[in-house]
Specification:
five-stranded mixed β-sheet, about 30% strand, alpha+beta, about 140 residues, 4 helices
Length: about 140
């Protein structure tokens, strides 16, 4: 059976900041720099999700693109777009996951995989905050 890898890109704009609630402002700023400022800051994120699957002999697809688009709309764009990640997304609330590219990529990886089920496999999620920095997450294996 032939396996293919399909990558789909989705974008969203969101705000966040880095802050540990158990640290004082000086330690947060020393550790996270400008990213710890109380007023938050935003990015135009680009997220790429790569899915592997067996190429269907009838359709030629390794994943139903319409289904993948629905999942990415729900689990990425609708969830994060024009949101404050720290205040609007419970998993990233203060004292929980730090809203770094690394944690965003990992969170998206497992959400998309859970929505896809077992027929297709998410192999990689890339989250870029801008043209100079991106994070790649490939799972826990």
């Amino acid at each position: 059976m032939a396996t293919a890898f399909l990558t789909r890109r989705v974008t969203f704009a969101a705000a966040h900041r880095y802050r540990r609630p158990e640290w004082d402002d000086a330690r947060n700023e020393a550790t996270f720099g400008l990213c710890a400022r109380p007023s938050y800051h935003g990015h135009s994120y680009v997220c790429e999700v790569t899915v592997a699957g067996t190429i269907d002999d009838l359709t030629g697809f390794c994943v139903d693109l319409g289904r993948l688009d629905e999942i990415l709309a729900r689990e990425v764009r609708d969830r994060f777009d024009h949101r404050n990640i720290n205040t609007d997304i419970p998993e990233f609330a203060e004292g929980r996951l730090m809203p770094t590219g690394e944690n965003l990529a990992r969170d998206i990886f497992y959400r998309v995989q859970a929505a896809l089920g077992e027929d297709e496999r998410v192999t990689e999620v890339v989250v870029a905050e801008d043209e100079t920095m991106r994070c790649t997450y490939r799972g826990d294996d």
